[in-house]
Design a protein that fits this description.
Elements lengths: L9 H16 L19 H23 L5 H19 L15 H29 L7 H25 L9 H20 L15 H22 L2 H15 L14 H8 L8 H22 L2 H13 L5 H17 L2 H18 L4 H14 L10 H9 L3 H7 L1 H22 L12 H5 L6 H11 L4 H16 L8 H35 L1 H15 L1 H16 L4 H11 L1 H6 L4 H14 L8 H10 L3 H11 L2 H11 L9 H23 L8 H16 L2 H21 L8
């Protein structure tokens, strides 16, 4: 008999059982691991130490400035963007990596890149000399110095190094010379702004008296932001930005409401890198709330709270029918609320939940779609709501606490809808849950429930009246303290690792906010947003529903292929003013565009979250995005409630809010039943149409429509009970 045919002794069997049990306890191990993008460099040795140190210093700079030593606002935002650009160009390549040193860049590219360092360093030197000139009492810099000794060398080095970075090949472990040129250009651009914006010349921006150096620095800075955006998010946002920039000079030649008088290059760029554009609301939010909550999320990752969230969800819902899908809803909602990116959340939690969903019977496209819908929903879940709530508070002036409270019922309706979609599909297909030995033990996880403390402290601090910055700082500190009670204690090394992770994680969102600020600047300086508002006002004269539908389409279109934060920032500038202009309350208008900007991540044909999920599930990307749109359908209907039933946003009396919440809850259950063809049992095609009509009636929120919807739901329930002969219906 071979060794493989022998029956293991009882002790060995017990050992195998113990290992299986331990494996179940570590089911979600690795969810908190950092996601490494395909174009991200993996440094070793002194280069790793250098960029790790820069990332730590960048995170500490924000913590200290926000809490201890405040800076002048524009200077702080300039450094905030420049730091992200310098880190980004160090960590992300502009092209493809070389497979080995033999395939690295040819010598002529290296020589040319080295030559480009000369004008970049010369421009940086000029910023130092201009600073000394201003400090010496000069009122302004000579125009020929700004042009020939600073502006032209800077723009030449920036543009040429960007093109060279597309061609230059280097192995993944080494730094590329063109990116060093771009880092120096980022320093030179930011340096000039710091010099000029701390003098009375700052007041001249946007006028004919503005120094041309501001325009040169802004052109270089905009090019750097666009290229960095391309590296971390792809081409979609860059293309949209370029279309808006082209509008600045092409707009005067366009007919109808799109036309405007026109702006010169100098005047436009002298103002776009101010609080009217790049340094405006989007960067204001990224430099305060967003960076702080990225640091908070990094501390949670370092203390393995994400692993605990997912394990807790498995223990609570894993044994229900279609268990992994329900786990995905809870876990991805929690993680997505914190990390602020739908596609990134899909990658982190979906790598675990999608294979398990396929294992219990979900088709690959459904598994990916459920994860995409749940991850996108995290962006609308209070109290953090990704980052959109902070941008909304900045733009509208409505206190963040009111926004978080208003988001409660819509978020609950969305996740209830997704849950019912998942449950009804599992019931229709007869899927099982996970076995007891496949999931962590709930009683053991309950003993670590204190790991929820940082989020509870955050919510409590916000509702006790602390500022968002103070509440976020307290929550971050509590994450480190709470970790001391867990197996993953955070010491000095772990805290430095969390700060490094925060600096790296912040690059994408900061650059995206700066790029969105460029678009916002175009909108505000050309007045195109006001013309969209007049268009919506004209449509509202025909039909308010038509105006809302048009606003929905524009919000989704602007958000396609863009990260959530940028999508909302642009939609809030273009669409929300028009909705406010037709008489909609600011909170309602901004929630309307916010929901559709978020849901653009699961809207075909360009659905970033669904595409990320299809890469894990192996399903067709378009099929996955179509299915995720179906699963998240409630999010495309509920925003219309904001207009017809503002009580859903806590606007109204207690009884109004309660009635709308209850009827909308029944409505989304009926909507899920119509989509999945299951309502306490299988339903026929005509019954699905009735359910859909009843659901829309319930979601609409009027007293008569509520009665009609209840009649449809109750009638179909009685019909199914009579068909089953009074036997209990399957659940």
């Amino acid at each position: 008999m071979s060794d493989n045919d022998k029956t293991p002794p009882s002790g060995q069997g017990a050992g195998e059982a113990a290992k299986k049990k331990d494996a179940a306890e570590l089911l979600a191990d690795g969810v908190d691991e950092e996601v490494i993008e395909s174009n991200r460099r993996l440094f070793t040795g002194w280069q790793w130490a250098l960029f790790a140190g820069l990332a730590v210093a960048y995170s500490l700079f924000h913590l200290i400035t926000l809490n201890v030593i405040p800076m002048e606002t524009w200077s702080y935002r300039v450094i905030h963007i420049a730091g992200a650009l310098i880190l980004g160009y160090g960590l992300y390549t502009g092209g493809r990596f070389a497979a080995d040193t033999q395939q690295a860049a040819p010598k002529w590219q290296t020589v040319l890149s080295a030559l480009l360092l000369l004008p970049a360093l010369y421009a940086l030197l000029q910023t130092v000399l201009m600073w000394r000139t201003i400090e010496g009492g000069a009122m302004r810099i000579e125009p020929h110095i700004e042009a020939w000794h600073y502006g032209y060398p800077l723009i030449l080095a920036t543009a040429a190094a960007i093109v060279m970075s597309w061609l230059y090949r280097q192995v993944r472990e080494k730094f590329a010379l063109p990116d060093l040129v771009l880092m120096v250009c980022a320093l030179a651009s930011a340096g000039y702004f710091l010099v000029i914006y701390n003098t009375p010349l700052r007041m001249s921006t946007g006028t004919s008296f503005a120094p041309m150096g501001i325009s040169y620095a802004a052109i270089a800075g905009s090019l750097l932001i666009l290229e960095m955006t391309r590296r971390v998010t792809g081409n979609a946002l860059v293309i949209i930005s370029l279309v808006f920039l082209l509008y600045v000079w092409g707009g005067p030649y366009l007919p109808g409401f799109l036309g405007y008088p026109g702006l010169s290059i100098g005047r436009f760029f002298s103002q776009v890198y101010t609080d009217a554009g790049i340094l405006g609301p989007t960067t204001a939010v990224s430099s305060t709330y967003i960076i702080l909550f990225i640091i908070f999320a990094a501390f949670l990752q370092a203390s393995k709270v994400g692993d605990y969230f997912v394990n807790f969800a498995f223990a609570a819902a894993g044994r229900a029918r279609g268990g992994p899908a329900k786990v995905s809803i809870f876990a991805s909602g929690l993680m997505g609320m914190i990390n602020g990116t739908s596609a990134g959340n899909v990658v982190s939690t979906g790598s675990l939940t999608i294979p398990l969903m396929k294992k219990v019977g979900y088709p690959a496209r459904s598994a990916g779609a459920i994860e995409a819908a749940a991850s996108s929903g995290g962006q609308i879940m209070p109290p953090i709501m990704g980052a959109g709530a902070f941008i909304m508070a900045e733009i509208t002036g409505i206190p963040y606490r009111e926004i978080a409270v208003a988001a409660l019922i819509p978020a609950a309706l969305y996740f209830l809808s997704v849950y019912c979609m998942v449950d009804f599909e599992a019931a229709r297909k007869g899927m099982r849950g996970m076995r007891k030995d496949e999931i962590p033990q709930f009683r053991r996880l309950v003993k670590q429930v204190y790991l929820f403390a940082p989020i509870i402290i955050l919510i409590a601090a916000l509702f006790m009246g602390y500022s968002v910055i103070r509440a976020g700082t307290l929550a971050t500190a509590s994450a480190a303290v709470v970790s001391w009670l867990s197996p993953h204690k955070m010491g000095v090394r772990s805290i430095l690792k969390a700060l490094q992770l925060a600096g790296t994680m912040s690059i994408q969102i900061i650059v995206v906010c700066a790029c969105a600020g460029l678009i916002v600047g175009v909108i505000s300086l050309t007045g195109v947003g006001a013309r969209f508002s007049s268009l919506l006002l004209g449509l509202a004269g025909v039909s308010q529903l038509l105006a809302l539908f048009f606003a929905m389409c524009i919000s989704i279109l602007l958000g396609m292929g863009m990260p959530t934060t940028a999508a909302y920032a642009v939609a809030a500038s273009v669409v929300a003013p028009g909705l406010i202009g037709i008489g909609i309350q600011p909170l309602v208008a901004h929630f309307f565009v916010f929901y559709f900007a978020v849901m653009s991540a699961i809207t075909p044909p360009v659905a970033l979250a669904a595409y990320a999920a299809s890469g894990i599930s192996g399903a067709n990307a378009m099929e996955t995005s179509t299915t995720s749109f179906k699963i998240g359908l409630a999010a495309f209907i509920v925003p219309f409630m904001f207009f017809y039933s503002p009580a859903i946003l806590m606007e109204g009396s207690g009884m109004q809010i309660l009635r709308v919440a209850v009827t909308a809850t029944i409505g989304v259950v009926m909507l899920a039943a119509a989509v999945q063809a299951w309502y306490f049992g299988a339903v026929k095609a005509w019954q699905r149409l009735l359910l859909l009509g009843g659901a829309i009636c319930m979601i609409y929120g009027g007293i008569y429509t509520d009665i009609a919807g209840l009649a449809v739901g109750a009638g179909l329930l009685l019909m199914q009970r009579s068909r089953s002969g009074g036997r209990p219906l399957p659940t």
